[in-house]
Specification:
binds zinc ion; elongated; 4-stranded mixed sheet; 3 domains; alpha+beta; single chain; 11-stranded mixed sheet
Length: 481
């Protein structure tokens, strides 16, 4: 067992989340990433140039010498000349700016009066322009954790990079449609004196605050976490791209073990593998890789804008937790799980819209979906918000029972083009009437005269599972027995 205080574990977190805006950060393209077939592919190469002081960046030179070709797949309505770097950026997306201002205020940040968009060198080809645009929106904030203040040094609004599809013999292919999706980046100060589990918990609270805006995307690839890890007499190692929150503490633990086993630790950037181990990707880049975005003038943030956002901040998660327990009668465990769930905002919309038991809705998002995710043949991303709304509307109207929900979702996820009502018919899970149930009960009793009522209930259940509420079966058997 490692004593993390003794080895002086220091970590810093950088958490990125995609914002659920309609349009990208600097153009009107869609952020849905739903298109499957590219309409065009373009090829680019990157050449390093001298800076104002006549120097060439060593990492840019290194990349140039690798002589790679970058291919970009372009998708209809999700990419335009901006992503191709053929046209200057359009004005900054105001919706994205307001969401990040809201997040910055929720972390008690100071908001600068003037926002300056910067360009940050990116040389791996994931940006067609070879830089990423980023702007600091909040500074010097904090988050309360176990009675202490966790420093939030900066909150930025950034553009996401293109996603890699393939790399073979120096030819790299990217999908361009992720480039330009707005991201919020939240950076903590150095976390000293915390265990890996506690650091994971801090990341979880940061995520929860972001989610409570109801304006962040969910699903695979929408959250990326980087962590800096250093121990006594070691060097700073940056680990990038941890997509699963539950993996963070393991990544830190394994990195500490790796550093402890080495005679000398080098400053470097590493990437995460799915099992929590990491691999070297490059030396840690220098700090001089930011310069001003000259296509967009500085943006002034007026006091009245901040006041307006402050007035409309979302309900803090602490209050939400109390409301879930007291008003919605969710158990303590379920309240916490739904708060931590990516489906929090959808859950709240559904219980507002339909007359369904909040515990049932929460359980579908927390347990049923978790079980479905474990199955390899299920594509959870096929289950859109609209499908869930329709599902709970049918439940509200008594057209299905809660017991049938897992089967309906399973079938629907594989048959996206079949309407939900047809899915229910296909798998034979339409509800049966009270009269039909009574007939079945009578038949079962007649055929099993020697059996006790519990056995009768079991037999009836097996015949009507998923089509009628279990309490109705028990009631009818008792009446007819
Ligand atoms: Zn575009």
């Amino acid at each position: 067992m490692i004593d993390y205080k003794k080895i002086d574990l220091k970590c810093g977190l950088e958490i990125h989340r995609q914002l659920n805006t309609k349009h990208k950060l600097f153009c009107n393209c869609s952020t849905m990433m739903q298109e499957k077939e590219p309409i065009k592919i373009i090829m680019r190469k990157q050449n390093p140039t001298q800076s104002e002081i006549g120097e060439i960046d060593t990492t840019a030179q290194y990349e140039f010498l690798r002589n790679r070709n970058f291919y970009y797949q372009i998708f209809p309505s999700e990419d335009c000349l901006v992503e191709c770097d053929e046209e200057p950026v359009h004005p900054l997306n105001q919706e994205a700016l307001e969401i990040v201002l809201q997040i910055a205020l929720m972390f008690n940040c100071t908001i600068p009066d003037e926002i300056q968009i910067m360009r940050k060198n990116v040389i791996d080809g994931s940006n067609t322009s070879a830089f990423q645009r980023t702007a600091v929106i909040g500074l010097d904030g904090y988050l309360e954790y176990k009675g202490k203040k966790i420093e939030i040094t900066s909150i930025s609004l950034e553009e996401d990079a293109a996603s890699i599809v393939d790399e073979k013999n120096g030819n790299v292919t990217y999908r361009l449609n992720r480039l330009g999706i707005p991201l919020v980046e939240i950076g903590t100060g150095l976390l000293i004196g915390y265990s890996p589990e506690e650091i994971q918990e801090i990341a979880y609270f940061i995520g929860m605050i972001c989610r409570s805006t109801g304006k962040v995307k969910r699903g695979i690839g929408t959250v990326r976490q980087d962590v800096n890890v250093s121990i006594k007499n070691g060097a700073r190692v940056e680990i990038k791209g941890i997509q699963e929150l539950g993996l963070l503490s393991k990544v830190i633990e394994l990195e500490v073990q790796r550093q402890l086993s080495l005679p000398e630790v080098k400053e470097e950037t590493r990437a995460t593998n799915p099992d929590g181990t990491t691999r070297f990707i490059r030396p840690l880049p220098g700090s001089a890789r930011m310069y001003v975005e000259t296509d967009i003038p500085p943006i002034l943030i007026e006091d009245k804008t901040i006041q307006k956002i402050k007035k409309n901040l979302p309900e803090p998660w602490t209050k939400k937790l109390v409301r879930f327990r007291e008003k919605l009668k969710l158990s303590d465990d379920l309240s916490k799980q739904i708060l931590a769930s990516d489906y929090l905002d959808l859950f709240e919309n559904i219980i507002k819209k339909f007359n369904v038991n909040p515990s049932i809705v929460a359980n579908v998002f927390v347990s049923t979906l978790k079980d479905l995710k474990k199955r390899e043949d299920v594509k959870i991303e096929n289950l859109t918000d609209e499908i869930f709304e329709e599902l709970f509307e049918l439940l509200d109207k008594g057209k299905i029972v809660k017991e049938s929900v897992p089967d309906v979702l399973l079938y629907k996820s594989k048959n996206v083009n079949t309407s939900l009502e047809d899915c229910i018919k296909k798998i034979g899970l339409e509800t049966i009437t009270e009269k039909e149930l009574r007939e079945i009960v009578k038949d079962v009793i007649k055929a099993n005269r020697d059996k006790p009522s519990e056995k009768i209930i079991g037999i009836v259940m097996s015949k009507v599972r998923g089509r009628v509420k279990s309490e109705d079966v028990i009631k009818t058997v008792k009446e007819e027995f």
